[in-house]
Each structure stands twice: as structure tokens, then as C-alpha cells.
Amino acid sequence: MKLIFIGAQGSGKGTQGKIIARKMSLCHISTGDLLREATGKLAEEIHGYIDEGNLVPNELILKLLKQRISQDDCEKGFILDGYPRNLEQAKELDKITKIDYVIEIDISDDESVKRILGRALCKKCNINYNLVTQPKPANPEKCDICGGFLERRVDDNEEALRKRLEIYHEDTEPILEHYDSIKINGEQDIKDVSEEILNALNE
Ligand code: AMP
Q1: Sign of the CA dihedral with 101 first, then 84, 43, and 137 last
Q2: Which residues, 6+ apart, have CB-to-CB distance to 88 below 8 Å?
Q3: What is the pLDDT of residues 185-197, one digit of tens each?
């Protein structure tokens, strides 16, 4: 099965992408993670876009995505988290593969700002925490699981976030009409959002 999760910054599409991928034995592909993992000269170019809250060029992300979905662990299908981000990317994706379902995880801009400005990530085991909402770490500086230091993403500041939200509303939301998407209420507990997604997929 091939799924796309779409949602504003902080909607939980990454968290849900990981949970649902594990439950359904699918591969979870976050294009943001693919970009952040780039090294060398390419990384410098990429960070220029990401840190300012802008999208990287379509050709660049498409090339990385094509390489990723052709790997063996994607054979049973995948969940795309962060792609497509505009109509041009959606049309490029249509040429490569057929998507079964598109899930929109809906939250308000106010909720997005609250969640993103409190977000902290363990660099060692890649777990997301939130110092304001959930899941809150026992110690605000350290990971509950491995004890690694929690860090903020460079683009999780108010200025970059406002730009990212603007791009989301202007460029990404029109994709929802391109597909016949399923809307899920993202302002619930993590487990309730997962349950709603699984129920929608089983219907
Ligand atoms: P995310 O981790 O999904 O919040 O993505 C972080 C950043 O990576 C975005 O703000 C963009 O700069 C870049 N990015 C991720 N996915 C895409 C994409 N499909 N197209 C262009 N830029 C992307």
C-alpha cells in the first residue's frame, strides 16, 4: 500500500507516519529527514533552504525520493511524509507510481505554532518530544529513552515557521483537491489519531 500523509508543521504526520508504518509493515519516508541526512556540498545547499523555511527545488527532492522508493525496504509500500509539497511535485509523483490513499492530518495554525515552538528532538535516537504539549520528557534537556541531549531544529523558530505555514496553505493545501483525501482530526491524543487513521484505512 502507498500512502501520503499531509499536514501543517507540527500536525504529527512524522509521528503518525512512524506508528502506522510499523503497524502496517510499510516503509516511512520523511523527505525532511532525507534532506537533513545529506552530506558534503549538497548539505550546504540544502540547509540554506531549510533553515530559512523555504522549499528545496523540486528536481532535487524528486531525485532523492526516486532513489529512496526504489530501495528493497519499500517493496511492500510506503508512507510519504513531506512529499508532495506542491502540485508540481504531486504531478511528478503521479508519473512514477499510483498512490492508494492520502491522509490529511488537520490542525489549526495556533496549534501548529504552539507545538513547533516547544518541539525538541533527540539527535541520538531521533525521538520527538514537546516541552509544551506531549510527549513531554521527564528532564527537559535529556531523552527519556537513551539519555541523549535534546536539540531544537534550526527552522523551528517563529520567523521560519510563519514562512513554512504560509507555504503550506498556498502550495501544499491545493494538493488535497488533486487527490481524494481523507481528513483526520490531528488535535487529539497521539493514540486516538492513529486509531482514526487505521479505521479510515480499514473502511
Ligand atoms: P519537514 O521535516 O517535513 O518539516 O521538512 C523540513 C524542510 O525540508 C522543509 O521546510 C523544506 O525546506 C524541506 N523539504 C522537505 N520536504 C520537501 C519537499 N517535498 N519539497 C521541498 N522541500 C522539502
Answers
A1: negative
A2: 58
A3: 999 999 999 999 9
132 φ/ψ sector (left φ>0, alpha ψ -120 to 50, else beta): alpha
Query: Per residue in 69-121, pLDDT tens?
Result: 999 999 999 999 999 999 999 999 999 999 999 999 999 999 999 999 999 99
Q: Where are the domains of the chain?
A: 2-108+169-202
Per-residue pLDDT reduced to its tens digit, 48-77: 999 999 999 999 999 999 999 999 999 999
Sequence length of the chain is 203
Q: How far is CA 164 from the centre of its chain?
A: 13
- Whether 119 lines ligand 1, by a CB cut-off of 6 Å, is no
- Identify the architecture of domain 2-108+169-202 in CATH: 3-Layer(aba) Sandwich (3.40)
Active site residue 164: yes
CA 117 to centroid of chain Cα atoms: 16
Cα–Cα distance for residue pair 140/185, rounded to 1 Å = 28
Cα(54) to ligand 1 centroid in Å equals 8
